[in-house]
Amino acid sequence: MKFDDKIPIYYQIKNYIYGQIITGKLAPGEKIPAVRQLAVDLTVNVNTVQRALGELISEGILESRRGLGNFVTEDQATIEEVKHKLIMQQLHEMYENLHDLNVTDDEIVAYLRQYIKDRRTTKDGQYN
Amino acid sequence: MANTIEIENLTYHKNYRRILENINLQIEQGKTVGLLGENGAGKTTLMRLIAGVAKGAHGTVKIDGEDQVAAKKAEVSFSGQLDGFNPSMRIDKIIRFYEDVYSDFSTERYNQIAGFLQIDEGLRLSALSKGMKEKLVIGLTLSRDTKVYLLDEPFGGIDSMSRKKIIQSIIKWKASDAVIVVSDHYVSEIASILDEVVIIKDKTIYTKKSAEEIRAQYAEGIEQYYESIYEGNDMDD
């Protein structure tokens, strides 16, 4: 994957792993690759991967099993919680950006409805 | 954490010209460090001083607490640009030379890296493309078992696939407690593997910062941060 050099990389790795878990690419209970393998795959520093995994472990989304490696939590509630958090993050960002353009709350809802409607009718999913 | 490299008040003159002045630098065990600075800033000279190859400097350079030249040579792996070898020498001969000279050289590790980077050992040094020569330098440098590895501009003029392979081999074969210093004058290609960034400007260390801190604190890339320093926009406190 490609990283944005303006944002701390450990944070982007966390988001990448959240995404993998929420979309089911990493299943509950699945073992995630070893730290060094992840570092090679993502072309990032081993220490940075370690920091990201450390935080994911303390958040409970990953579980570290001694001598065995790191596993995705099997607790659905935790996964749902992360999904909710990520959705809120995206909405928050969109909301703030639209507010900066002086779009009102009602307009945001109307625009979003229209946008989704248009998306459904365009074949390629491109909206311009 | 313990400092693997400790440099104090290091000054280096050559032919009455000041090359480096009053360098103070500590690098902790296990770090991957980008040594950045424009051409002629003194990056190679600093590497040569750390490796104990350049002589006649004032000040101290300690590797793992030792400041004797022999100790430095034993604990620092630095291949430069293989300038000391006859251009007509075949690659396999150079590898035999490394095996003979460095007791910590692991042929097994070299073969792994050479396999990964697809180094062709039948060729002569002079016949190597720029990318292949850099791959060989990486293979030879990383195959020693030392505390410090110095890579002097390993990405100069090479294609993006070779670059990616070289970066991957650095991540793959770096021992977790070893220090790697990579110099470059163009940063974005290595930014993602760096723990720390050391910038040389005006013959001395301008700053040393954590790469993640630069991203978090300035919300800008390592490349922009580095350029802003060279353009004189002092964003430091």
TrEMBL record, chain A:
CDD domains (UniProt xref): WHTH_GntR
Record domain HTH gntR-type: where: 7-75
Pfam families given in the database record: GntR
Keyword presence, Ligase: no
Domain of life (superkingdom): Bacteria
Record's keyword terms, sorted: DNA-binding, Transcription, Transcription regulation
GO molecular function list: DNA binding; DNA-binding transcription factor activity
PANTHER family hit by this protein: GNTR-FAMILY TRANSCRIPTIONAL REGULATOR (PTHR38445:SF6), HTH-TYPE TRANSCRIPTIONAL REPRESSOR YTRA (PTHR38445)
Descriptive protein name: GntR family transcriptional regulator
Organism: Lentilactobacillus rapi
TrEMBL record, chain B:
Keywords in alphabetical order: ATP-binding, Nucleotide-binding
Xref: SMART domains: AAA (SM00382)
Domain called ABC transporter: residue spans: 5-227
Pfam families cross-referenced by the UniProt entry: ABC_tran
Example GO molecular function: ATP binding
CDD domains: ABC_DR_subfamily_A
InterPro entries (alphabetical): AAA+_ATPase, ABC_transporter-like_ATP-bd, P-loop_NTPase
PANTHER family, alphabetized: ABC TRANSPORTER, ATP-BINDING PROTEIN (PTHR43158:SF1), SKFA PEPTIDE EXPORT ATP-BINDING PROTEIN SKFE (PTHR43158)
Protein name per the record: ABC transporter ATP-binding protein
Organism annotation: Lentilactobacillus rapi
